[in-house]
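Hi R.,

As promised on Friday, here is the backbone we talked about, encoded as structure tokens. Could you run it through your design pipeline when you get a chance and send me back a sequence?
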């Protein structure tokens, strides 16, 4: 992703970890994806007209982040997602 972001100026890649204590050398963003979307969506002016939203990961994260994006104007079909199935949990609908 770093290479793609360097090659294509329209890609902004923000690597993040939610359990920073597991890697003491980590210097990047920390927190859950939904927290980072809350942090960056408004200041960067992310809108459905200028941004693609693709969410991949835990079904709860996808559901939470879709709610955040909906409040920023994304319509139901404008966010693509891929939920990883966790045994014992139902996957969120894409």
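Update: got your reply. Pasting your designed sequence below so it's all in one thread:
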């Amino acid at each position: 992703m770093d290479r793609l972001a360097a090659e294509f100026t329209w890609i902004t890649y923000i690597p993040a970890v939610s359990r920073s204590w597991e890697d003491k050398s980590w210097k990047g963003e920390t927190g859950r994806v939904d927290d980072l979307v809350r942090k960056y969506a408004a200041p960067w002016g992310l809108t459905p007209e200028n941004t693609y939203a693709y969410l991949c990961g835990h079904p709860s994260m996808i559901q939470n982040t879709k709610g955040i994006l909906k409040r920023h104007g994304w319509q139901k079909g404008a966010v693509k997602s891929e939920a990883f199935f966790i045994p014992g949990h139902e996957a969120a609908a894409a």
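One thing I noticed while checking it: Strands lie at 16-17, 29-30, 53-57, 79-83.

Thanks again,
M.
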